[in-house]
């Protein structure tokens, strides 16, 4: 008898929050209920989500960038079906898969300065692998990353990430990890001059805040790394595969890293996969003898379903010209948000490349608005952004969120399949909600009072 997963989903759907609270993470359910996001999504198609009442939402989170092709793209699904129907000899372990070889070959084509690929199961695993590879290749131990970086939540990746909310309670972390200010070449030069740094890990555009470097930063970092014998590792887990209007974000600055990390979108939204693209000599240092052929790996990496998802993803990106679409519609949205910023005091800046966009909010000039800003921000840093995100969701059916804990930036990571009608939807919704936020008193600030009251109750009820 075949297990009917779709029927099982339908039968137990009404219990989703109860089940999650009971067996997984109760606090996540409380967050959803507090923000009013507990609408019970039942279906996803392309850039859209549909709730239990079949109301359509525009998804500007895309699973933190996983669904760059949208949800349930038929080409990915069909590719996975061919693997399942083919009875392939998957994960023999004492053999190698031709699909892994083909995917590696195609991933390297846009970056010919790199010659080898290591596959993992996630972005965090790719970061862990790159840390090990850098130390093995250089004989050095120190790893440098940037402040406000996010590289993942496994121990090595977490050690490169600067965020107390993620690190608290999990120490001690990996030793010999140093964090420097982002976009500061002088600080990087001083750190690398010790000749003890194996690698400098950097997001070309920082995901937390959508922080974009100055034009000389990444080229300068590459020069300094070469000068001091340090490997340059570009974490493109979020920015890669067309997100910024280029296949890799480093292409905007004509930089050629020693390793590039990919994941998220490479999955096609179905089968987790991570990849380290590296210079040949680096992996040759790691796998340098027959008895070290398996010195680093992962049981499920290179599985045929993941490889098929990656191959189909690259094919869809090329066939549907999604990189060009990301550049074109990203330019349109950035222009629209810059225009909104010109007319609204709460918008401090707008920045982004392609379809990775951040709208940063800040204290306004006028005293009345500044008092309202201070009221909510005193309770919790970044709370103002929820006064924008929640009405976007409730009133305009747009799913978007802040760029990180305590952040004043709302980040947009929509599917690269976005169209002109979606842009109209986004521009109208943001303009309306941001305009409403300038009406004090008003509906947005009534929501603010409710959220403040809830935050205060949570604080009072917190155990010592």
From TrEMBL:
Transmembrane segments: none annotated. Belongs to the class-III pyridoxal-phosphate-dependent aminotransferase family. GO terms for molecular function: transaminase activity. SUPFAM superfamilies: PLP-dependent transferases (SSF53383). This is Aspartate aminotransferase family protein. Keywords: Aminotransferase, Pyridoxal phosphate, Transferase. The keyword Transferase applies. PROSITE patterns: AA_TRANSFER_CLASS_3. Its cofactor is pyridoxal 5'-phosphate.
């Amino acid at each position: 008898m075949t297990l009917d997963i779709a029927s099982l989903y339908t039968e137990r759907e009404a219990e989703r929050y109860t089940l999650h609270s009971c067996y997984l993470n109760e606090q996540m359910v409380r967050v959803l209920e507090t923000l009013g996001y507990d609408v019970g999504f039942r279906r996803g198609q392309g850039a859209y989500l549909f709730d239990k009442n079949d109301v359509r939402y525009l998804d500007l989170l895309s699973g933190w960038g996983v669904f760059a092709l949208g949800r349930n793209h038929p080409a990915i699904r069909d590719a996975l079906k061919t693997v399942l129907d083919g009875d392939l000899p998957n994960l023999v372990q004492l053999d190698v898969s031709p699909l892994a070889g083909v995917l590696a070959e195609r991933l390297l084509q846009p970056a010919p300065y790199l010659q080898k690929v290591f596959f993992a199961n996630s972005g965090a695993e790719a970061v862990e692998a790159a840390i090990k590879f850098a130390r093995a290749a250089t004989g050095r131990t120190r790893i440098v990353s940037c402040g406000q970086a996010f590289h993942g939540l496994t121990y090595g990746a977490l050690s490169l990430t600067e965020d107390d909310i993620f690190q608290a309670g999990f120490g001690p972390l990996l030793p010999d990890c140093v964090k420097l200010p982002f976009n500061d070449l002088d600080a990087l030069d001083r750190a690398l001059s010790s000749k003890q740094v194996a690698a400098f890990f950097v997001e070309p555009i920082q995901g937390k805040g959508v922080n974009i470097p100055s034009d000389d930063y990444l080229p300068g970092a590459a020069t300094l790394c070469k000068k001091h014998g340090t490997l340059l590792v570009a974490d493109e887990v979020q920015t890669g595969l067309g997100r910024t209007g280029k296949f890799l974000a480093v292409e905007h600055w004509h930089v050629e890293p020693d390793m590039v990390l990919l994941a998220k979108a490479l999955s096609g939204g179905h089968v987790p996969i991570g990849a380290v693209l590296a210079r040949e000599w680096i992996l040759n240092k790691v796998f340098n003898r027959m008895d070290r052929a398996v010195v680093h790996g992962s049981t499920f990496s290179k599985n045929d379903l993941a490889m098929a998802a990656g191959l189909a993803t690259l094919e869809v990106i090329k066939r549907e010209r999604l990189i060009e679409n990301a550049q074109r519609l990203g330019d349109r949205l950035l222009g629209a948000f810059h225009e909104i910023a010109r007319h609204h005091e709460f918008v401090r800046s707008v920045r982004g490349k392609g379809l990775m966009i951040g709208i940063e909010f800040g204290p306004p000039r006028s005293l009345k608005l500044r008092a309202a800003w201070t009221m909510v921000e005193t309770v919790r840093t970044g709370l103002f952004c929820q006064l924008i995100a929640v009405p976007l969701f409730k009133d305009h059916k747009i799913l978007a969120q802040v760029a990180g804990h305590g952040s004043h930036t709302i980040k947009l990571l929509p599917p690269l399949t976005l169209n002109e009608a979606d842009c109209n939807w986004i521009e109208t919704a943001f303009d309306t909600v941001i305009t409403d936020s300038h009406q004090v008193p008003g509906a947005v600030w009534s929501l603010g009072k409710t959220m403040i009251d809830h935050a205060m109750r949570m604080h009072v009820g917190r155990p010592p």
